[in-house]
Structure formats: structure tokens, C-alpha cells
Amino acid sequence: MENASLYDRIGGEETLRTLTDRFYDFVFEHELIARLFKSDKDEIKEKQRLFLTQFLGGPGLYSEVYGHPRLRARHIPHPIGEEDAIAWLTCMDKAISTLTISDDLKKELFSRFPQSAMFMVNS
């Protein structure tokens, strides 16, 4: 298991479904960033699950369905400030904290997000 992807080590699809469900529960209730997520909640969660699968070393599901992630380009239409990125990270941290994985895996999983979240800042 030492060479297994983070996706596999956290529990694969089942864990990512739990993570995305809990994450978006926090996001859609967050007073600062809920405005950034105006489309269908189930569609948003599914896209995120597909992306995270790929992002964490699992199958390239997002690319198979939607093409290259092009994260920054896909987020340009939405004004995202540094405080929005921090709020997003706070929601992700809260969601990760609810998972039934080791604290070391929680830390490793969360460590994957700050750089990407800050890269989305465009205003």
C-alpha cells in the first residue's frame, strides 16, 4: 500500500462521495462563498468527485467526461478573492475532519488543496 495513490489510501470512491457531500453541505451554507455555486448541487458534487478522483491519483474520470481540467480557465467567470479561497479551504478542512481515516491521511489530503485554492484567486 506504500506506493498506492492517495485516492486509494483514503478509501477511493466511497470516501470521495462522503467528502464531496459533506464539503458542499458546508459550502452551500457558507455566507461568503455560497454565491459562487449557483448551478445544480448534484451536478457540482459529481464534477468535483470526478475531479478529485483524478487529482488524488485515481482514474482520470474528469478528463474522460469533460476534457482537461483547466482549473483556472473554468473558474475565470467567477470573481474569486483570497478570502473566498480561504473560506473554500475552511469548508474542505471541516469536511475532511469528518472522514473516518487516520489523522495523518487527513493532513496529507488537506495539504493537496491550499496551492490549488490560491491559484483560483482572480480578483
UniProtKB/TrEMBL annotation:
UniProt xrefs under InterPro entries? GlbO/GLB3-like, Globin-like_sf, Globin/Proto, Hemoglobin_trunc
Q: Which residues form a coiled coil?
A: none
Keywords for this entry? Answer: Heme, Iron, Metal-binding, Transport
Which molecular-function annotation in GO is an example for this chain? Answer: oxygen binding
Pfam families, from UniProt? Bac_globin
Q: Which SUPFAM superfamilies match?
A: Globin-like (SSF46458)
Q: Per its UniProt record, what PANTHER family does this chain match? A: TWO-ON-TWO HEMOGLOBIN-3 (PTHR47366)
Concerning its family, UniProt says: Belongs to the truncated hemoglobin family. Group II subfamily.
Q: What is this protein called?
A: Hemoglobin
